[in-house]
Amino acid sequence: MKNKGFSMIELIIVVAIMAILVGMMVPVLIKFIEKSNVSSDYQLVDTVRSAVSYSIVDAKVKDDPNSQSDLASMEAGPIDITTIRTDSVLMESITEYIGQNPSVIVSQVRSKHGSGCQCMVSTINGIVKVTLTETDETAGGDTSSSSTNNDITVE
Asked: Is 90 exceeded by the pLDDT of residue 4?
């Protein structure tokens, strides 16, 4: 009578082939996950940009003396969003649009980022630019502060 099962050698060969295939798929899967995280960060930065855009045209923000220095600082150059005065109408307005305090933005960054990651905001003639520093929009993992051309930026 002939045995109608698989031999141990055949099973080992199948397991080895499966291990090789999984080994080839893991790097590709990791790259797709990082690209997804970068996309999520773009949405986060765009949300912040929208919140700041709406807030800077709000009459209450323009009339608030506590907000004036922050608006002037944003016009002069990029500022870290966490440095906006907490007692200003500008911060209240941004918080209302985002749905949470902007100081937690960096903790929500999903892509690879450096320890000095900041959410920088600037305005030039009413156009808002938001940048996540020490990130890598290419999903390649280069988060060094020297590679600012890879920072996630939305205008």
From this structure: no
Helix (H) or strand (E) holding 105: none
Domain coverage including residue 145: 8-154
H or E stretch including 81?
none
Average pLDDT over residues 92-110: 87
Please count the structural domains in the chain: 1
Q: Which two tokens stand for residue 14?
A: 């199948």
Token pair for residue 80?
Answer: 């870290």
Strand order in the sheet with 127-132: 79-80, 119-124, 127-132, 152-154
Q: How far apart are CA 1 and CA 47, in angstroms?
A: 72
The gap from C-alpha 77 to its chain's centroid, in whole angstroms, comes to 21
